[in-house]
Design goal:
With about 230 residues, the protein is of the alpha+beta class. It folds into 2 domains: about 150 residues, no CATH class; about 60 residues, no CATH class. Helices cover about 25% and strands about 25% of the residues. The strands form 2 sheets. A 5-stranded antiparallel sheet has the order 1-2-3-4-5. It has a 5-stranded antiparallel sheet with strand order 6-7-8-9-10, with helices on one face. A hairpin with a 5-residue loop joins strand 3 and strand 4. Helix 5 packs parallel to helix 7. The protein starts with 6 loop residues before the first helix and ends with a helix. This is SMI1/KNR4 family protein. It comes from Rhodococcus baikonurensis.
Length: about 230
């Protein structure tokens, strides 16, 4: 572990990653980036970490409080990264075992972005996360153990699930109402169950029957586990 981002490691999982210094941004680039990103990147490493944690305190902690605590203890640096024309904040964190973890945070959702239908059913705290913090925040290795980008979410009934064979349809949540919003890295997904205004969570996996959970609780637990907590 050094004091610099291991871009070769990141490049194993992220297509053509490039770290961009604030001074190298064009006027056009700046138009695509949130003001709070530009503000965060103006300072040294201690400043960048402090500013990102402030943002997490406002928009990440309300839905992922334990995760926020872990990030506060482990965040080492934040840098601006581009990959295939997209912008991200690259987080470097130190896990409890001393290994570096790299997470990508996508550009927040804006009113000009196309959003999937499920967006309108998000719980308010999750909507605030996506519009004020990140559209997806996940481990670079496999885009897992964090909230998925909106474009990577999918309805569970888009796939066949052998685990349902032999089960009565009224014995498990309706797959057409389940939208996968988080990938565990194994065969599991945390889903939002869309049923009118009632927001519920469902754990859906390939090796056990699906079941209802409290969405925010599981989002926090699963994300925090991914950080090694």
């Amino acid at each position: 572990m050094g004091d610099v981002v291991d871009l070769m490691h990141v490049a194993r999982f992220v297509a053509a990653p490039e770290l961009i210094a604030l001074d190298d941004l064009t006027v056009q680039d700046r138009r695509h980036l949130p003001e709070h990103w530009l503000h965060t990147l103006t300072g040294d490493r201690a400043w960048r970490v402090a500013e990102v944690l402030k943002r997490w305190n406002g928009f990440g902690r309300p839905i992922m409080s334990d995760t926020y605590t872990t990030i506060t203890a482990s965040l080492v640096d934040v840098a601006l990264l581009t990959s295939r024309g997209e912008w991200f904040l690259l987080y470097r964190m130190t896990a409890a075992d001393g290994d570096d973890l790299y997470y990508l945070g996508g550009r927040p959702v804006t009113e000009n972005d196309d959003v999937p239908a499920v967006w309108h059913h998000f719980p308010a705290s999750l909507t605030r996360f996506y519009t004020h913090l990140h559209n997806g925040w996940y481990d670079t290795a496999g885009r897992t153990v964090g909230p998925l980008p909106l474009r990577n979410m999918f309805r569970i009934d888009a796939f066949e699930w052998g685990i349902l064979d032999g089960l009565s349809p009224d014995g498990y949540p309706d797959p057409s109402r389940c939208v996968a919003t988080f990938h565990s890295g194994g065969g599991g997904y945390l889903c939002l169950y869309i049923d009118g205004d009632a927001v519920r969570g469902v754990v859906w996996s390939s090796d056990e029957p699906p079941y209802f959970v409290d969405y925010s609780t599981y989002l926090d637990i699963w994300t925090n586990v991914g950080l090694g907590a």
